[in-house]
Amino acid sequence: MDISTRLQLNNGTKIPVLGLGTWKIDDGDAEKVVLDALGIGYRHIDTAKIYGNEKGIGKAIKKSGVPRKELFITTKLWNDDHDDIIGACEESLKKLQLDYVDLYLMHSPTPVRNESWKTMQQLVKNGKAKTVGVSNFTIRHLNELLSKSKFVPAVNQVEFSTYLYQKELLEFCKSKGIQIEAYSPLTRGRKLNDSKLIMIADKYNKSPAQVLIRWVIQHAMVVIPKSKSRERLEENMDVFDFNISQEDMKKLDGFNENLRVTWDPEGIE
Ligand SMILES: NC(=O)c1ccc[n+]([C@@H]2O[C@H](COP(=O)([O-])OP(=O)(O)OC[C@H]3O[C@@H](n4cnc5c(N)ncnc54)[C@H](OP(=O)(O)O)[C@@H]3O)[C@@H](O)[C@H]2O)c1
User: How far apart are CA 100 and CA 130, in angstroms?
Assistant: First the structure.
């Protein structure tokens, strides 16, 4: 397993298990950060219209010279754009200077989600997206969607970390063939000084961040840590030369404290 390792999604598309998150990287910085990331081996970039950095990322992709088919680019439909989903995707593609994205996600389960999901399937048919999926969907939102559509999302991108171990959601998604992508896997830095995490990290001669990333991968999820720093981009991809033992995985599972560093989508009816 290494940075080029991919997991197969339910439509046959393969997604690199580790990608770069880009929230809070503004458009001015995005070109440099993404060029750095592509230069050291990242091939999977996660963005969204609302991050405001698609243009910078597009420039980096172009400059990098990495063949398009080696890349896996995700962007997302913002909540205000559900009345023109095709137009919103085309707008993102224009900024990214791409003909298609590898994954287009509905950013949140808005009230019109089930209708919108039907339109999102058109994006696959018309070649604008290789795959479509959802984000911030709970089991309730997914059950409702699946009761209305035979078309199963390939991915559900949700907040997921050692400190927010959503076991039930993970098992539910597995049973339906939906790949979980873990966002905020580093708890946005909040738990990196937790002494019990540091103890495990020291044992493997790895950093706390590397243990949190590896924990996600060993649970067979995709992980998208964000960093602007070249040093930390390298650190975050250096997670393929060690294996957390079953015993330590159990210990880490037990660190769960239902900690959300973003928001709880359960509140969306
Ligand atoms: N679908 C959604 O609704 C949604 C919501 C939130 C996030 N996401 C996606 O998921 C990605 C990741 O989540 P996130 O950005 O919220 O949080 P995260 O990846 O858990 O944490 C990022 C923070 O950790 C720091 N950091 C990164 N690597 C580190 C390391 N090795 N050691 C110490 N600190 C480190 C970063 O600072 P530096 O940059 O200074 O290194 C940044 O402050 C986002 O960027 C975005 O692409 C999606």
Answer: 7
pLDDT digits (tens, 9 = 90+) for 34-57: 999 999 999 999 999 999 999 999
pLDDT at 156: 98
Q: Is 109 in the pocket of ligand 1 (CB under 6 A)?
A: no
State the pTM of this model: 0.98
Q: Which atom of ligand 1 is nearest to the CA of 232?
A: 31
| 51 counts as catalytic | yes
Domain spans, the chain: 6-256
Res. 135 pLDDT band, cuts 50 70 90: very high
CA of 89 to the centre of ligand 1 (A): 24
6-256: CATH class? alpha beta
Does residue 133 line the site of ligand 1, with CB under 6 A? no
Q: What does residue 202 show for φ and ψ, rounded to 5 degrees?
A: -60, -40
For ligand 1, say whether the CB of 209 is within 6 Å of any of its atoms.
Answer: yes
Q: CA 205, CA 202: separation in Å to the nearest integer?
A: 5
